[in-house]
Design a protein that fits this description.
It is built from eleven helices and eight strands. By secondary structure, it is of the alpha/beta class. The protein binds 3-methyl-2-oxobutanoic acid (KIV). The site of 3-methyl-2-oxobutanoic acid has 11 residues, from β6.
């Protein structure tokens, strides 16, 4: 508990602000965060939405995909992020299968992310298969962000992390799903790895904001996995990623300096004894 101890309620970004931002043509900046320190740094930078993505399974826990991430892991990381945030909207991913074993299970899992971990909304991957869950969560007072296109929890079904909605039929299906999610009460939709023309059509069609990742420049906002954007994760970096910093290389170089100085005896520095024979503070 105590997850909101640094939150600034006056300046907090709310789900309704994102819809207003779309109406006013203001772009939404979203990044992922998985711990207190990262959340604090990104919040200070003015990021509007911090997503505790189940990408943590890959970039934090070292799995090949997001499927091993559990509700308990999401609660643990979301609570840490919530403790670091003053302004940004905190959205937590509903992990693999948490929406597919029945509506009560989904409501319980989302409820834990909100009540125990301090999330202000949850994100759900999928279209028609999650509409009932979306509607019931919204009825229960839990805002829902949708996620269409490349949905990493379906990596085996999709045959890998591939671009989606490339054919006219798939594009039409995606647009129908987006409208259905909006009708079910979703307040925003992530569009991942789809052609920019499809993302543009979805953005024009919907009243709620679209947040793109690998979906071109026409969405109402953009999201990146922070470890990709800041050069912290180099196992697999999607082509659409822009790397804004090279923190991984910097951290390794800093650690090399530290190792050398410890081995050389340069750190900590040797302090001279005072004339009285005691050591100065
Ligand atoms: O888990 C995640 O980080 C995500 C983003 C890629 C949108 O779902």
């Amino acid at each position: 508990m105590g997850n909101t101890r640094v939150r600034d309620f006056e300046r907090s970004v709310r789900t309704t602000d994102l819809i207003r931002m779309k109406r006013q043509g203001e772009r939404i900046a979203m990044l992922t965060a998985y711990d207190f320190t990262m959340a604090r740094l990104l919040d200070r930078a003015g990021v509007d939405v911090l997503l505790v993505g189940d990408s943590l399974g890959m970039v934090v826990l070292g799995h090949d995909n997001t499927l091993p991430v559990t509700v308990d892991a999401m609660v643990h990381h979301t609570a840490a992020v919530s403790r670091g945030v003053s302004r940004a909207l905190v959205v937590a991913d509903m992990p693999f299968l948490s929406c597919h074993t029945g509506v009560p299970d989904a409501v319980r899992a989302a409820g834990r992310l909100v009540r125990e971990a301090g999330a202000q909304a949850v994100k759900i991957e999928g279209g028609h298969s999650v509409l009932e869950v979306c509607q019931r969560l919204v009825e229960a007072g839990i805002p829902v962000m949708g996620h269409l296109g490349l949905t990493p929890q379906s990596v085996h079904q999709l045959g890998g992390f591939r671009k989606q909605a490339k054919s006219a039929t798939e594009a039409r299906k995606l647009l129908e799903s987006a409208q259905a999610l909006q009708a079910a009460g979703a307040f925003a939709i992530v569009l991942e790895s789809i052609p920019e023309a499809v993302a543009l059509e979805a953005t024009e069609l919907l009243d709620i904001p679209t947040i793109g990742i690998g979906a071109g420049p026409h969405c109402d906002g953009q999201v990146l996995v922070s470890h990709d954007a800041f050069g912290l994760y180099d196992e697999f970096v999607p082509k659409f990623v822009k790397q804004y910093a090279d923190l991984g290389r910097q951290m390794t170089a800093a650690a090399e300096d530290y190792v050398r100085e410890v081995r050389d005896g340069a750190f900590p520095p040797v302090r001279k004894r005072s004339l009285s024979g005691s050591y100065p503070d």
